[in-house]
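Appendix C reproduces, verbatim, an entry submitted by the partner laboratory led by Prof. M.T., so that reviewers can inspect both the input and the predicted structure.
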Amino acid sequence: MPANRVQIKLAGLVDPSELSGDRQFSMNLARGLEVLRAFSIASPALGNKDLCEITGLPKATVARLTYTLVMLGFLSQDQIDQKYRLGPGVLSLAHPLLATMAIRGIARPFMQRLASETGCSVNLGVRDRNRVIYVEAARADRQNPLLPDIGSSRPLLAGAIGRVLVLANPAGQTQHIINRLKTFDPAAYEKHSTALRADVALFRREGYCHARGDWHSDIHAIAVAVADPTSRETYALNCSLKISSHENEHLRENVLPKLKAIRDEIEHALRDEQCRPEHWRGSKPRKSS
């Protein structure tokens, strides 16, 4: 395999420019996806000029991409201000993924029980590039103002759930992710580097990460990794609670043992799911190389 294709295994952490010489890599598709990724809650409506500034792509390229994406239903264009918004086609891509993500249905009752027993908000997340995407939630702490919607995202290093997704990898991959995060957003990396260093030691020693008001001063959280054999993906499970700093020991002493126990139950249920005939009956055998 060519050296410039090795990093594809780390999903989302490849700069398209690094693959310009790879004939298997579609640069046009990559540019179209960069246009779609430019939209956010903070910037839901963007014009071609905005997209050029965000993506760094030439004006003519952006114009062709937005026209194509509108024709395919992935963008819609406002006839008054001429700006673009994400179209229903994007949602149609996301739903099949969420609906077939076995871990969501399996983890949900365990998460609800944990939320009920601890009073915490319990969230399940997975990494996408330099962010954590929330895929399931059980909410008990109604005083917590930072309750993420399914599909919403936050920077990886800004909380315990994201830092787990950085650290729960083989050492080489963890370091590669950290190096990429430095490149993606040096200011954000510097801001959260102290918390990351503390969690590196904590994760190695005790297998969890701890956010002490990193994202919001009175929101504290702990998180552990969940291995999903049905998808071969690593997820992170957290408990977050609105508390004062002197109550931090409550999370470590009272909530952490329950969080780890629930994680173990979820992983056991996932292994059982993997062994069910209907799980493997529909899969095609791999071709020998």
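The CA atoms of residues 79 and 85 lie 12 Å apart. Additional entries are available on request from the coordinating office.
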